[in-house]
Amino acid sequence: MNPQNNRVLVTLLFAGLGVGAVLLFLNLFLWPLQEYNRQIADLETANKDKQDQVYQILNDKKRLQHWRYLSLPGVESLPKAKGALPNPVEDRKTAILEAQDLYTKYLRDLLVRHNVKSDQIPQAEAVTENKNIPQVGANVPVYTPLRFRLAGRGKLDNIVKMLDDFQTTPLLHRIRNGTNKEKR
Fold first, then answer.
1. pTM of the full structure
2. Based on the number of CB atoms within 10 Å of its own CB, is 114 exposed (0-12), middle (13-18) or buried (19 or more)?
3. Which is nearest to 96 in space by CA: 146, 132, 139, 138?
4. How far is CA 126 from CA 15, 37, 59, 144, 149, in A?
């Protein structure tokens, strides 16, 4: 071997070692570091998404508490019997009947307070299944709408005051339709 071949051989040897060192650096350090950083970024994104969900749930919880405040009492306000197993179906029926009684009393008092005469007490109507109500479980709606039919007669001024009082009452309720007949 001559010195020139030795130089080429040494150059090739150092080039091979350099390529090996670069590959070793890439395999043992750079690529794992990039993968680690990508995983961190993915986890930070997932963490931010979960945090946004938590904030949304907390905001929804505040709105739900406000709606519960504006709603008639539900199953959660029924007295609990000691030793009795909960019966969700019966508890729900009982809560609906109690809410209907409370709302009937509210409507009767509203009519009397505004001097609007009624020939019949406010009547609860059966609510047909409404597919637009969200469900929290199998056949368990988030809320139960109650419908009442109310007929009354009185001075227009009293009826307007009654409707204004109805609208400002802090309850989740609405008037779906109404008829005003002129007295002859």
1. 0.59
2. buried
3. 146
4. 88, 60, 33, 11, 11
Neighbours of 111 (CB within 10 A): 21
Q: Which residues contact 105 (CB under 8 A, 6 or more apart)?
A: none
pLDDT tens column, 101-144? 888 899 999 989 999 888 777 878 767 666 777 777 777 777 78
Contact, 167 vs 159, CB < 8 A? Answer: no
Using CA atoms, how far apart are residues 98 and 63, in angstroms rounded to an integer? 24
pLDDT at 1 (0 to 100): 66
Tell me which residue of 110, 39, 98, 38 sits closest to 74, measured CA to CA: 98
Predicted confidence (pLDDT) per residue in 8-58, tens digit: 888 888 888 888 888 888 888 888 889 999 999 999 999 999 999 999 988
Query: Residue 79 corresponds to which tokens in the numbers above?
Result: 């007295």
- Domain spans of the chain? 1-70, 88-168
